[in-house]
Amino acid sequence: MALRQIMLAKKITDAESALEELRGKTEEYDVREKELEKAIAEAKTEEEKRTVETEVEKFTKEREAHDEAIGKAEKEIEALRLQQEQIKEGEKTKRGTKKPMRKRSEAELEEMRNGINEYVKSKGQKREGFTSVDGGALIPEELLEPQMKPEDIIDLRDHVKVVQVNSASGKYPVISRSGGTMNTVEELAENPELANPKIEDVDYAVKTRRGYIPISQEVIDDADYDVTGLIRDEISSQGRNTANKDIAATLKKATAKEVTGVDGLKDLVNKEIKKVYGISFIISSSLYAELDKLKDKNGRYLLQDSITAASGKQLLGKPVVVLDDDIIGTKAGDLVGFVGDAKAFAAYFDRKRVSVEWVDNQIYGKLLAGIVRYDVQKTDGDAGFYITYKADGTQGN
């Protein structure tokens, strides 16, 4: 069984490499297509038109074959993953039958947990009861979910759009929010034309991030506790911290704007961000501390209690998310933050591949590496601003 899993993992890796190579050629076809569009516009004589027409027919056939090859490769990878999942769950399916993925039972999860514990204690020698990927152990998503998530931990993946992807790179279409409306027409009247949507392709390229758990040989030899729990907590923590850093770096790419006082914040929210966007404040702890001291003319604090916002506060009726200064800013004391619709502004392209593997270490022990794969890209630049706050010496109205 283990050999079949290893072979499937190798096939998937090879298929993904082939797909990435195919996708790399897509840009070449895009360039050729633009060149042909230009040639069509510039063709004057009949001979030039015939030549261009021949080239167009040739290009069309090549492009269709290329797109077909990509589709075939994607289906092949999907089929291999399904086969891998079926083997991992111990399912015996008839040839040609595809069973839907189901939620694992507690007994199955316990078997996997025990198998991974044995993998850790045997330093990677025992590989039964779980799926192995590229020489490491694939951790089921159910085992990565923490038993109780502390309320004060911020995960920015909850505040941006999460897109599940099945390939290492590709394009994601984004429609800008135009704010257009439909028209009122009489019965049986001809449909009027709606506002033309602006569609842009966002390129994503999944990258691998790694973290590790240093485990001494003594701990491995003497451990009688749930090692999987240790792996789960560490990978979850490192994965969240890494994702927060990369998402925050993307939010900082928003249009820079200096805001003076609370009135400046009000003008930004009320005038400069379209109402089609759901606005929130993702700000530094120093800016939060600054705003937390401000009162209106009636002596009421501007930051109000909220049962829905992660920080427990809201500003100008909008939820507030508080991050460390050096995450959303660059250094301690930075009065900065993102104001706008983070879900519209950025997307987190999740490859959903989390695994652990042994890494050699010169000390008497091992480093158990955790691996996550994703990309973060800006999707709608009109959805928000990256502000630098400046106090005006007065309180808000």
Number of E-state strands: 16
Distance between the termini: 70 Å
Structural class comes to: alpha+beta
Largest sheet properties:
7 strands, mixed
Shape: flat
Q: Report the mean per-residue pLDDT as an integer.
A: 76
> Ranges with pLDDT <50 over ≥5 residues?
91-99, 146-151
Instruction: Work out the helicity level.
Output: 40-55%
Please compute the radius of gyration using only Cα atoms: 27 Å
Order of helices and strands: HHHEEHEEEEHHEHEHEEEHEHEEEE
Proportion of residues in β-strands:
15-25%
Number of helices: 10
Describe the structure concisely for a colleague.
The chain has 397 residues and is of the alpha+beta class. The protein is built from ten helices and 16 strands. The strands form three sheets. Strands 1, 2, 3, 6, 13, 14 and 15 form a seven-stranded mixed β-sheet that branches. It has a seven-stranded mixed β-sheet with strand order 7-16-12-8-11-10-9.
Features:
seven-stranded mixed beta sheet; 41% helix; alpha+beta; 397 residues
What does it look like?
This protein is of the alpha+beta class. It has helices at 2-42, 46-88, 106-121, 141-144, 217-222, 227-251, 261-272, 285-292, 325-328, 342-345; strands at residues 132-133, 136-138, 161-164, 169-175, 199-205, 207-216, 255-260, 280-284, 303-305, 313-315, 318-323, 336-340, 346-350, 355-359, 365-378, 384-390. The strands form 3 sheets. Strands 1, 2, 3, 6, 13, 14 and 15 form a 7-stranded mixed β-sheet that branches. The protein is flat, with a radius of gyration of 27 Å. Mean pLDDT is 76; it is low at 91-99 and 146-151.
